[in-house]
Design brief:
homodimer; alpha+beta; 6 strands
Chain lengths: ~325, ~325
């Protein structure tokens, strides 16, 4: 990948995170940076792959995906890859290491389950949110089983890493912003199914690194419901269960991403959300299972903006 | 994951690799172990997921996939994960480290491209081998472009890691056992398209660690052609372009895996290959683009067995 020209790099902070506020994969990066007390500049990126900025096109020409961490002008891409990089560069004896010290624990406890989350839980979650009837029931059952399995891994520990918040907590906690969505879409109580996991979620959210980054479940539910649809060609374009997938938006929906993004930001910021006009303009077939009035109630003006667009962090939060 | 009981572990070597000889993902592990001079016991596993041994079911209950590395009775799963583990445990100042020393190089040069290989090249390769007509042409074009991109990463270096054979070489070289398959299936000359990549392949194969592990292209082509088919339900069950995918074999094909495995082993070992009877017994619709006589010619008796079923390595090969 290209390294930024010195002129361009000179205008940037030492550490820059390029992301979209509702991107679950990117939340990992922003939490990890905060956990290790790394000051960084945040650049909000366009939701749509085809509308990605020149910066993204230059920094990640292969995938054009976000998040991207730019350190001294050099990009690191892929959320797990970035979190490992952050830990290798800024983790140390004086601060906390996110990954376990022991190679066997790194392999068996940390990376194995991170892969499970990214390649099992995420795909099941996507199927759950995009299916109906028996398929949805089966996906729901599978998802709950996978969550129960993760709960077994957690055991009676405070965090996945043991007593301390660590790598696997960073990797998985962004999914918790969809727990409310799970319950709404699947009509079940996660606390009943996975009591330890919901306790873990609460513990994580007591950390400033997490609470500063994660949108709440209701904010994510709005995004999910708006963008979870299939087009006439049966291709799925979704912000997928609250975790953004970088997919090309087809021509007929070229405006959707921008419209959605603007509308969400506008509504959450100004509490002037107008669902009917938005739905109409997007021509989407949606099933809004969430009372939109409750979004206005629970998504107060400025709240999301403050949380999701930090200009710069300069303090250690650990 | 379960740790082996002491009684059971006591019967095993300190380091055990559970794999199937034609598994490209597993080849990475076996090459890495040889590169770092780690003696290991090799246990050949059944090709079919549903017929996996109790050992696999206990060591990798989540995926039941291979390869599995068992070290002091504790399993490590996932080929990239295992290679990183091997490097962390046995790489050191006195031996070679497979991963770069610099965190930025680890992230940007090594892990990023490993992910590209596993999630882009591999899926394109699978589409290429399982499609026809325009879809096949498009997949071929995409595959060649991805190979050219990797060639750009290689540049004028001897290896992906620079002057020394390293992590990304370990990760990608198993794919070269399908280069012959690419050319046969796509009717093109890879050396013309990617001359540097084919030179790199030759350099890698001069290493004992690689030559001892990799089946040659013609052996892999036989497997590919035999198992690359779609069943009546349009589900694809393939050893996928030479890289094994762990898929459940449907009931109506329950015997296929064993039959195929036995037949290949028998044919390559004894040079008594009887394609017509095998095809008949498998009821597969196959297009064998390879002259079977040339397999007998190029796959001499005992050769594959020796290469693929090492009982125990005790020497450093680096």
């Amino acid at each position: 990948m290209e390294k930024l020209d010195m002129d361009v790099a000179g205008e940037m902070s030492e550490v820059t995170c390029v992301d979209f506020w509702g991107n679950g994969f990117g939340m990992r990066v922003r939490i990890a940076l905060r956990e290790l007390g790394v000051p960084f500049e945040y650049i909000e990126e366009d939701l749509r792959v085809r509308e990605r900025s020149d910066l993204v096109r230059r920094m990640n020409p292969v995938h054009r995906s976000i998040p991207i961490l730019i350190h001294h002008g050099r990009p690191v891409c892929g959320s797990i890859n970035i979190v490992e990089y952050i830990d290798e560069v800024w983790g140390g004896e004086e601060t906390t290491h996110l990954l376990p010290n022991n190679p066997a624990d790194r392999a068996d406890d940390a990376r194995f389950w991170a892969d499970f989350i990214d390649h099992k839980v995420f795909s099941t979650q996507t199927r759950f949110f995009t299916s109906k009837g028996e398929e949805k029931d089966a996906a729901k059952e599978e998802l709950v089983q996978q969550l129960k399995r993760l709960e077994e891994v957690l055991g009676d520990n405070a965090f996945f890493s043991g007593d301390e918040f660590g790598f696997l907590d960073v990797v998985f906690i962004p999914f918790s912003s969809m727990f409310y969505g799970y319950e709404q879409h699947g009509a079940f109580d996660l606390e009943v199914e996975c009591p330890k996991l919901t306790q873990w979620e609460k513990r994580c959210k007591q950390r400033e690194s997490v609470s500063e980054v994660l949108p709440d479940g209701k904010e994510m539910q709005v995004i999910k419901n708006m963008i979870e649809y299939k087009d006439a060609n049966k291709n799925t374009y979704l912000l997928g269960s609250g975790i953004l997938i970088a997919v090309p938006v087809p021509k007929q929906h070229a405006a959707s991403g921008k419209v959605i993004q603007s509308a969400i930001q506008k509504s959450l910021k100004e509490a002037e959300y107008s669902p009917s006009s938005l739905l109409s303009s997007l021509s989407l077939s949606l099933s809004l299972s969430l009372s939109l009035s409750s979004i206005r109630k629970h998504g107060p003006a400025g709240h999301t903006h403050k949380k999701c667009f930090p200009s710069k962090l300069t303090k250690s939060l650990n």
